Amino acid sequence: MDEPPKIEFPCDYPIKIIGEATPCFADQVLNIVNRYDTNCNLANTSLRPSRHGKYEALTINFWALSEQQIKLMFVDLKQLKAVRMVL
């Protein structure tokens, strides 16, 4: 039998981006996410600095339409110099 999809689209989808703590890190990430969800804004995010302040973890909830959309966005996010990991 076919397995049901693990995620039913469209849906709210959280992603976490870990990167260097720079003044423009969150803005750069949000600019890319906005290409895929124009309604995403800072209200849809949370930002946590690392213990020593060298890195930041940015969690964003966006409206995902498909698995392909998520994969393409992850590729774009990983292109940013400051990004270390996308989950």
Describe the fold and architecture.
The structure is a single chain. The chain has a single domain (11-86), classed as ACT domain (Alpha-Beta Plaits). Strand 2 (45-49) and strand 3 (55-64) form a beta hairpin. The protein has a four-stranded antiparallel sheet, covered by helices on one side. The mean pLDDT is 93. With 87 residues, the protein is an alpha+beta fold. It is 28% helix and 33% strand. The protein is built from two helices and four strands, in the order βαββαβ.
List the helices and strands and how they pair.
Blueprint: E1 11-20, H1 25-36, E2 45-49, E3 55-64, H2 67-78, E4 83-86
Antiparallel strand pairs: 1-3, 1-4, 2-3
Helix pairs in contact: 1-2
Features:
87 residues, alpha+beta, Alpha-Beta Plaits, four-stranded antiparallel sheet, 2 helices, 4 strands
Q: What is the strand arrangement across the widest sheet? A: 2-3-1-4
Shape: elongated
CATH class: Alpha Beta
**What is the architecture at the second tier of CATH?**
2-Layer Sandwich
> Which structural class do you get from the secondary structure elements?
alpha+beta
Overall radius of gyration: 14 Å
CATH superfamily: ACT domain
- Element pattern in H and E: EHEEHE
Helix content: 25-40%
* Integer average pLDDT: 93
Per the CATH scheme, the topology name is Alpha-Beta Plaits
Count helical runs. Answer: 2
Strand elements, count: 4
What is the number of domains?
1
Strand content: 25-35%
Query: Largest sheet at a glance?
Result: 4 strands, antiparallel
Give the end-to-end Cα distance, rounded to a whole number of Å: 30 Å
Q: Report the uncertain regions.
A: none
